């Protein structure tokens, strides 16, 4: 994905994890069965469309909560330190500028 679209590895990991989590939530609403979990509820394929709605509300709530909490945490951190490195540090490489060592044994990657 990174090579073809130019998306960084971190963003790609977040997107893939987010999509997987959203699908897991929706799939629960679609495929849930009381035959597997008698304390639960049936999903869409067993005639209960309400569970999909509940799962969608939960997904939206989780996304909103995560975005708000991330914003708050980053704002608090930015009071005490910069959230970005300088362009010089970035060009030198963060392994050298932040950790004082070269990654990959000096091999140019």
From TrEMBL:
Record flagged with keyword Endoplasmic reticulum: no
Coarse class of the protein's main subcellular location: membrane
Example of a GO cellular component annotation carried by this entry: plasma membrane
Transmembrane segments: 7-32, 52-74
Pfam families cross-referenced by the UniProt entry: Ammonium_transp
Segments forming a coiled coil: none
Localization of this protein: Membrane
Signal peptide: none
Protein's membrane topology: Multi-pass membrane protein
Ammonium transporter AmtB-like domain mapped to chain residues: 11-104
GO molecular-function terms, A-Z: ammonium channel activity
Keywords: Ammonia transport, Membrane, Transmembrane, Transmembrane helix, Transport
Family: Belongs to the ammonia transporter channel (TC 1.A.11.2) family.
Name used for this protein in its record: Ammonium transporter
Annotated organism of origin: Clostridium estertheticum subsp. estertheticum
Taxonomic classification: Bacteria, Bacillati, Bacillota, Clostridia, Eubacteriales
């Amino acid at each position: 994905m990174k090579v073809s679209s130019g998306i960084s590895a971190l963003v790609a990991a977040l997107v893939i994890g987010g999509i997987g989590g959203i699908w897991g939530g929706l799939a629960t609403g679609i495929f849930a069965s009381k035959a597997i979990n008698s304390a639960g509820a049936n999903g869409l394929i067993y005639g209960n469309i309400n569970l999909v709605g509940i799962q969608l509300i939960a997904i939206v709530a989780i996304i909103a909560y995560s975005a708000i909490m991330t914003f708050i945490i980053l704002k608090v951190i930015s009071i005490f330190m910069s959230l970005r490195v300088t362009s010089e540090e970035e060009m030198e490489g963060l392994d050298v500028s932040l950790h004082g060592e070269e990654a990959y044994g000096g091999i140019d990657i």
